[in-house]
Amino acid sequence: MSSEASAVWNECLRVIEQHVNEQSFSTWFKPINPVKLEGTSLTIQVPSQFFYEWLEDNYVQELKLAIKTTLGHGGRLEYAVVVDRGNSANQPYVVSYPQNNSGAKKAAAPPAEPDKTPFEMKSLDAEALTNSNLNPTYTFTTYIEGDCNRLARSAGFAVATKPGITSFNPLMVYGGVGLGKTHLVQAIGNEIKNGPEEKFVLYVSSEKFVNQFMDSIKDGNVKSFTNFYMQVDVLIIDDIQFLAGKDRTQEMFFHIFNHLHQSKKQIIMTSDCPPRDLKGLEERLLSRFKWGLTADLQMPDFETRVAIIRRKMQSEGIVIPDDVVEYLAYTVDTNVRELEGILISLIAHASLSRVEISLELAKTVMKNIIKDIETEVGVDFIQKTVSEYYGIKLDDLKAKTRKKEIVTARQVAMYFCKEFTNHSLKSIGYHFGGRDHSTVIHAVTMVNDLMETDSSFRNAVQELKKKFKMRSY
Questions:
Q1: How do residues 90-147 score in pLDDT, each as one tens digit?
Q2: How many CA atoms, within 13 angstroms, populate the side-chain half-sphere of residue 293?
Q3: Distance CA 231, CA 433 (A)
Q4: Three-class secondary structure assignment of the chain
Q5: Cβ–Cβ under 8 Å, residues 295 and 150
Q6: Which of 34, 93, 107, 340 gets the highest tally of CB atoms within 10 A of its CB?
Q7: Is the pTM of this model over 0.70?
């Protein structure tokens, strides 16, 4: 490294630093080493062909300005690119900048152009327009709407009607495992794909996106990878949280996102949490995720679970008794995926055993799948169910605390112990921190009185009562 080249490049860096952000400067300019200065031609060494292509594609104007400012109008920049040739020794070759400069000297010929990848598409053909990685069964027709997902579904349908035009761009759908994120975003994709306009819709998991990007770096096809994704009309990327910690992939996605958004193309993403809680992602990405609409999916309520079960049974051409539907809906209150899995198991058991689907069969199947399921309504089950319903700790039901919300939950639990168990009043009081029988009598009286005067309280008690009745069948 000559001192002249080093001094000139340091001047160039001072100019460049004023026109790019700190992270880009650290990522794309600090690793560059000045090699030599011949007249007004500066040669710099970059670590890879990918690095060189990225500078050419994204920072040409900044480099032009730096060279012009430092070396004048006749200044030139050449790259010494270290190319990995497998088992052979790395042999750098020089690519002149500008590329049409016929006076460039090459130390070695650049490697032969690699075979085209699936991403390298100068235009979108019919096959590309149909291969969107979408599951055709995921539609709005098969997506059950409820209070738990109404906002997300409504926004999704608006996006499907006018992709890239609404203010819901990007659309971020987040929620826990098995709540229907993938179903919803693919329903949007299928609606657009089957619409009157010919749109290139692409669904991809973030894991696949990362793997494709890594393969493109390895094969020297980063530009082809970028060109492919920049031609998409609707990009649906699932589980965006898995980009956390992958800085180079985030850099690439940032530029693809910007291009698509500026071109009024639709971007749809899913995540397991809202953008503000995503860790390991660049702030500039997170800020862009907040440009459009963020909608959450919650655990389905009882009515929605019933509708899901009935729709699933209808699609399978099977009819099951209402008591079985209610039992399953009350028992499986975690997520849609688990509920559908249990339905499949129930259908399989009935088919293989050649028996009708009944409540007894449903309980047997549930007992085999969910190990901690309780088959009887006892004091412990009532306490656990009531505490979960009111969102309080189980120990608080037995404690001496007199907080209103805990007292109410405790009285409701005592009321149900009186109705659904054979325990004496004294025994029930014992299970609630050693209280006496008069406390239990007071609790039952208070619950009955509140049910007559408070409709919301009455609805809560009735909902819990249905759950206990299903257990006692």
A1: 444 444 444 444 333 333 334 444 433 334 443 444 444 447 889 988 999 888 888 8
A2: 18
A3: 66
A4: CCHHHHHHHHHHHHHHHCCCCHHHHHHHCCCCEEEEEECCEEEEEECCHHHHHHHHHHCHHHHHHHHHHHHCCCCEEEEEEEECCCCCCCEEEEEEECCCCCCCCCCCCCCCCCCCCCCCCCCCCHHHHHCCCCCCCCCCCCCCCCCCCHHHHHHHHHHHHCCCCCCCCCEEEEECCCCCHHHHHHHHHHHHHCCCCCCCEEEEEHHHHHHHHHHHHHHCCHHHHHHHHCCCCEEEEECHHHHCCCHHHHHHHHHHHHHHHHCCCEEEEEECCCHHHCCCCCHHHHHHHCCCEEEEECCCCHHHHHHHHHHHHHHHCCCCCHHHHHHHHHHCCCCHHHHHHHHHHHHHHHHHHCCCCCHHHHHHHHHHHCCCCCCCCCHHHHHHHHHHHHCCCHHHHHCCCCCHHHHHHHHHHHHHHHHHCCCCHHHHHHHCCCCCHHHHHHHHHHHHHHHHHCHHHHHHHHHHHHHHHHHHC
A5: no
A6: 34
A7: no
Are 470 and 327 within 8 A, CB to CB? Answer: yes
Per-residue pLDDT tens over the stretch 51-82: 777 787 778 888 888 888 888 888 888 877 65
CA-CA distance, 48 to 52, in Å (whole number)? Answer: 6
Strands 293-297, 201-205: pairing kind: unpaired
pLDDT mean over 303-331: 81
Q: Which of 22, 43, 40 is nearest to 32 (CA)?
A: 43
Annotated binding site: 178, 180-182
Measured between alpha carbons, how far is residue 354 from residues 316, 321, 323, 347, 350 in Å?
Answer: 16, 17, 20, 10, 6
Place of tokens 């749109």: 199
Least-confidence region, from 104-113, 193-202, 348-357, 462-471: 104-113
Q: How many CB atoms lie within 10 A of CB 328?
A: 23
Burial 286-318 (b: 16+ CB within 10 A, else e): eebbeebbbbbbeebeeebbbbbbbebbeeeee
The pLDDT confidence band at residue 471, using thresholds 50, 70 and 90, is low
Give binding residues for ATP as ranges: 178, 180-182
Among the listed residues 172, 183, 144, the one whose alpha carbon sits nearest the alpha carbon of residue 273: 172
